[in-house]
Write a structure and sequence with these properties.
Shape: globular
Number of helices: 4
Strand content: 35-45%
Order of helices and strands: EHEEEHHEEEEEEHE
Distance between the termini: 17 Å
Radius of gyration: 17 Å
Number of strands: 11
């Protein structure tokens, strides 16, 4: 997975723009080749809720390190995290209860299970990538969890927009749902059937 995440400056500008109704902090992106993507291991901007209830911008490293393993874990199945929280053990048990956050992005990408295209870099056949955006939005929010400066993107079963491409999807938050994710009733966001996404083949 990769995503077109906002920079820390862009994320802060979006927060600041909320104080001025009708203003937009971000420009429209016509060519995604002009903006940088974030990959596991990247530093990613996110929002967490401060003690006074206000959102603040933080920078997190995308991926939870595993002891004695060379690669970090960068996605978290919501159902697994909830089970671990109920049992009081597991790598996600604390973060899902105490470290929920919001990750602002312009788009995220998923790899198609069967479609193949020729790589522009190697000339070999590779699986096609699809870009997913929220129609009409310059940016939108993904549900994340964090702990000790590390970030993981929360995933759920795919909705009708993503299912033809991939068997999982990030938990995309619609209008008004950021407060739900940060609140006590976040489990009810598991079903993403009400979130309509625009899918675009990368090439």
């Amino acid at each position: 997975m990769r995503m077109c995440a906002l920079t820390a400056d862009e994320a802060q500008e979006v927060l600041d723009a909320r104080l001025t109704p009708g203003s937009h902090a971000l420009d429209e992106v016509d060519d995604f080749a002009d903006v940088a993507d974030a990959y596991p291991g990247s530093t990613v901007a996110a929002y967490e809720r401060a003690e006074d209830g206000a959102l603040v911008t933080v920078s997190l490293t995308w991926g939870f390190a595993l002891k004695d393993k060379p690669h970090a874990v960068f996605n978290t199945r919501l159902e697994t995290a909830l089970q671990q929280a109920r049992e009081g053990r597991g790598m996600w048990s604390s973060a899902i209860l105490q470290g929920r956050c919001l990750v602002p992005v312009r788009a995220f990408y998923e790899t198609h299970g069967s479609e193949r295209v020729k790589s522009e870099h190697t000339g070999k056949m590779v699986r096609r990538q699809y870009r997913f955006r929220l129609p009409g939005a310059r940016a939108f929010l993904l549900a994340g969890i964090y702990e000790d400066g590390c970030l993981s993107i929360v995933t759920v079963d795919p909705n009708a927009s993503v299912a033809p491409v991939h068997n999982r999807m990030p938990l995309v938050l619609g209008p008004g749902e950021s407060s739900v994710w940060l609140g006590p009733d976040f489990e009810r966001l598991a079903n993403r059937d009400g979130v309509d996404l625009q899918a675009e083949p990368e090439r």
